[in-house]
Amino acid sequence: MSREAEEFRVGTEIVAGVDGSPESLAAAEWAAREAEHREVPLRLVHAWRWEPLDLPLVQDQGAQERAAEEVVRAAEARIAERHPGVAVTAEVLKDTPVPALLDAQHGAGMLVIGSRGHGAVAGFLLGSYGMQLIAAASRPVVAVRSHDDRAAEPPTGEILVGQQGTPEDSEAMLRFAFETAHARGAAIRAVRAWSLPSLYAFSPASMRLADDAGGLLPFEEKALREALAPWRERYPHVPVTEHVELGSAGQVLLTTSGAAQLLVVGRRAKRGALGQRIGSVAHAALHLAPCPVAVIPQG
């Protein structure tokens, strides 16, 4: 196997969460295509746990268990019919959604979930659990919209990836983007957004670095080239476009995502007063990007 092939065959499988909704079926379809590209198995999972209600209602545990099993079997049959070359399995995980999917990620290359599209945080698959999962996962999580026709068709367009900070800061995102582009035979657009420093951010040392590069814009362009260099060497056949633009990272990524087949962003989860937060760039991408979004945990 070539070095390039070894690079993108990371993880023993792709895991997709399904619950019978159009959103989760779109996620399963996207995951099946990615499994085809990467030549890895696909595992479909549905989280269900018997939790009787304290109400005067007839509650049939057996019927609910059979319904949960039917969810994954129906998704499995759909994928097996449409993607006969993919080794697909299906399983009911007897736990609540977030712990179940976080446990399922071990040994996987990525998790794939559905998104109901534009709207509130609760619009993701499994309700608010989707955001909790993205914030806590140690593997890349891909959110796929149900109305996105690109989830059900061969992908076209570029892989769009955001690069910020040092090469080490963006290593995980660039790795995922190059692996995916190589697997799909796609091109990459690497975006680095920058802003004019505030008066208090100026210092002789920082200005000397900018002056050595020929100015602030050349300094940012040089930083992007240096971050991309090792990945271009590993994947010499992947076309790369460098895109450096003045503006906020979220704004620049969204304005360039219209023709993308996938947007790759990073996240460093932080705990706030309302729980886990994933950062403004990932938050904006998940809510507003028109294409599937891969959120990659950083460091």
UniProtKB/TrEMBL annotation:
Domain annotation UspA: ranges: 14-145, 159-297
InterPro entries: Rossmann-like_a/b/a_fold (IPR014729), Universal_stress_UspA (IPR006015), UspA (IPR006016)
Family affiliation: Belongs to the universal stress protein A family.
Protein name: Universal stress protein
Organism: Streptomyces hydrogenans
